[in-house]
Amino acid sequence: MTDxxxxxxxxxxxxxxxxxxxxxxxxxKGSSGVIGAAFGAAIVVIFxxxxxxxLNRVLRSNPTMAMTVALTxxxxxxxxxxxxxxxxxxxxxxxxxVFAMSVLVCTLTWxxxxxxxxGKEKVLYVEPGSGPxxxxxxxxxxxxxx
Length: 146
Known about the structure:
Layout: H1 3-29, H2 31-61, H3 66-87, H4 96-120
Helix pairs in contact: 1-2, 1-4, 2-3, 2-4
């Protein structure tokens, strides 16, 4: 499975759940609910997509930096979300409770879908052909009894 398929397998269910939350918010809260739900879902899909694409690039180029990059991305996501919450704390442009619920549900959806996608992927622990060129010198089994 390619890295793009993992992102798609997480982004598509998240977008569908975001659309469902937006529809429910539109029915129950009106246009402010629609804006809040759509904004929350969009933030989650954008943040997580950028994060996964960036992490995939780091894993290919420098795997030893993967944990550092993952934790840094996590802290940046939390900081940006906190800043958005502070900026829109007293807004009347959208329903902030619907926004928060949308972010929470879409984050859980992304996480579950991504775990499922990684669980379905077949991970090679050893790259085929990456070892030394070794040819056995005799045909005896490795442990024979005498």
